[in-house]
Specification:
Two copies of one chain form a homodimer.
Chain A: H1 2-6, E1 9-11, H2 12-15, E2 26-29, E3 32-38, E4 43-49, H3 56-64, E5 71-75, H4 77-89, E6 98-101, H5 111-123, E7 131-136, H6 138-150, E8 156-161, H7 164-170, E9 175-180, E10 183-190, E11 195-199, H8 208-225, H9 227-235, H10 237-241, H11 245-265, H12 280-289, H13 297-315, H14 320-332, H15 343-350, E12 363-366, E13 372-375, H16 380-396
Parallel strand pairs in A: 4-11, 5-6, 5-7, 7-8, 8-11
Antiparallel strand pairs in A: 1-13, 2-3, 3-4, 9-10, 12-13
Helix pairs in contact in A: 5-6, 7-8, 7-11, 8-9, 8-11, 8-13, 12-13, 12-15, 13-14, 13-16, 15-16
């Protein structure tokens, strides 16, 4: 009662159709799951499994067709040095793709790289019928997707995410784009891939810190909409962190399923899709205030979820017991690197959040475990106090 | 018969639904016509009339709404110096828009300007609910539209074209974008405006050369699909060139109607919309080969139409009499500035045309007057010979 009397709260239940069904899983062969994504403007499959790379060319056949379509790959030097042999092995000798490189790091996720990559692709013979594969982490996916969206006003592309974060989050849903000097992801497009191939095998070479950073987005998926995933991550922590393929597959498939369902209902983030931004208001602000240098995205989101959790706890959208359970799960997938940033800098940076509308700042709050609410009336005082609380946790964990 | 035996020709009749109807004109008041555009993904109005500017704010009301939506204007310094007083006069003192400038010239139609404009808009408080007005010629419309497409992955915008070319062509249909160093319009998006306001009054300050350049696109509209417009431009040449408002309105409305109809049937240029590219294969090549410095776009298209006409004449898609009539009409709206460029440079530049698919070069040819065909089998010999013929005309007109 306190909730409805005291605050204008938009619960996700009020945004979603009542008789919603989770997309069904189809199995096309051992160890490979196909999760369908169906939005207002696009329909495609996310293929999740272990060791997909050796059969990549065969799996691309439906997208390449027989019409002499040229294939281009945008990747990072690091991923390519690890996986190029496996990647190219499945391609016939006479149809090898053209490979282009995106330099690693958020500072290169900019318009200048998009322009360079488009220019290089066209110089190498790309036209509107070309197919692009974005093979790498979130930056490669975002930049590669924006290249595909913009090259001659749009060509087909495939996401082949190589990090956990990009597998569970950025490769699905069609959001692509670049940073500005003044903020992250402030320019871009909605451009859905024709397919997503999430190969769990690729995660075996992922640095430990990046694995954990990605898992924070899966924890987010559990908090906002999937209590079963949340519990699985509580009980299977050791298997997940030691990269048991089955445990990772379970986490990744559940995270993608959740995202596919949300994006299917609200493609353009006019309602339900906003819940995916739990932890992102403060998370993005932390990244901006630390110039994208100190934290991985997932780590900033983890801190941001702790701040949102504190607002939720104070407002009563979560009980103290639930808040503790969520906090414990987040720290169980740590350590989170320390933060040296002033509360005022974070609060200031939230003013530029993309979710804001005509000056109104939006927040996603957990509503128990497995549900969430969107609120528009978080005061500066509340925000200050939640950021202060978060910074206390930062200091306590040092 | 010769046509069907000798060449694989795709006529627009085979691309368009059989029972096609031209969009109906609605009149909302004296001297203002509303032409509806309805595509697979968007629905909006083109408002054509004389002296729309003084009532602009009232006309924007349906798009601005009452929710405190911020209004931004991207314009050119030249247009703004001529029309800012009239533009701003209709806005209440407390809701003046924020104005940003795009420098004039194709060399500034680049990613770097899009990035700068997005950054400036966000610094000035733009968010996803902001409304952008692109007020200027084709470059302002293309860059402004791409800014609207990309800012936070897409905001609403309005086209307010100030040149004849942008009124009859680029402001309708949602094609927006930028040039690369290596070619024109090679990057961009499909992003439809919420409305287009084509104020004929703005054309009174348009340099004579630009007026004529724009009229070549209307001639194109007549050739490919509107024999009545073609005849009107033959008989009313003097009224049109002396800018009688009624004559211009007739030409502009007919051109927009034609484009609205074509774009409504084929939004993404997978079929019928290709006919709008009559003259553009060689036209773009001329622009690229002369580094976008010698000719206005409409002038390059005029030369390109003469080249396409020569291919059509040789193939028999137009009779010699029709070819002469078309040639005469084009020259009646001249003079066309001379060209100093080698045939080989033009032919080479056509290889990078956006309409090409997997190495196949597409051409639009006039099929009589008021109809057109898309062909894919223009040989290098035919192209060379048509460009040589065009260059002969260039020399003859010097």
């Amino acid at each position: 009662m306190r909730l409805t009397c005291k605050f204008s709260v938009l619960s996700y239940d009020s945004l979603a159709p009542k008789k919603m069904q989770a997309p069904r899983l189809r199995y096309d062969e051992a160890n490979v799951r196909t999760i369908p994504v169906k939005t207002a403007s696009a329909e495609y499959s996310v293929i999740v499994g272990n060791n997909i790379l050796p059969s990549l060319y065969r799996r691309l056949a439906p997208y390449v067709g027989t019409s002499g379509r040229r294939v281009f790959v945008i990747t990072s030097p690091q991923i390519w040095s690890l996986w190029s042999n496996s990647f190219l092995a499945s391609f016939p000798v006479d149809t090898q793709p053209t490979v282009l490189f995106q330099p690693p790091g958020e500072q290169w996720k900019r318009f200048a790289q998009v322009e360079r990559l488009i220019t290089e692709m066209i110089s190498a013979g790309a036209d509107r019928s070309s197919l692009l594969i974005a093979f790498g982490g979130g930056i490669v996916g975002d930049v590669g997707g924006f290249v595909a969206a913009s090259l001659m006003r749009g060509i087909d592309y495939i996401q082949m995410p190589s990090t956990l974060l990009s597998q569970v989050d950025s490769s699905v849903g069609g959001k692509v784009g670049v940073n500005l000097a003044t903020g992250k992801n402030l320019a871009g497009a909605f451009h859905h891939p024709k397919a997503v191939f999430a190969d769990i095998e690729l995660l075996q070479t992922l640095p430990d810190r990046e694995l954990r950073a990605g898992l924070f987005e899966s924890i987010k998926a559990g908090i906002i909409r999937d209590a079963k995933l949340f519990r699985f991550m509580e009980t299977q922590r050791d298997s997940i962190l030691s990269r048991h393929a089955k445990a990772l597959e379970q986490v990744i498939a559940a995270s993608i399923r959740m995202k596919a369902e949300v994006v299917g209902i609200d493609e353009r983030e006019s309602g339900l899709r906003m819940i995916l931004n739990l932890g992102h208001t403060v998370g993005h602000a932390i990244e901006a205030a630390t110039h994208y240098r100190k934290l991985l995205h997932g780590e900033a989101v983890a801190w941001g979820m702790l701040a949102a959790l504190e607002i939720g706890r104070a407002r009563g959208t979560v009980t103290t017991a639930q808040a503790e359970r969520i906090e414990q799960l987040i720290f169980a997938y740590g350590p989170l690197p320390p933060l040296k940033v002033k509360a005022a800098a974070i609060v200031e940076a939230t003013r530029r959040d993309k979710k804001n509308r005509a000056g109104v700042r939006r927040f996603i709050l957990p509503a128990g475990i497995g549900n969430s609410v969107v609120v528009e009336n978080v005061t500066d005082t509340e925000l200050n106090s939640s950021v202060a609380h978060m910074l206390t946790l930062v200091r306590a964990r040092r």
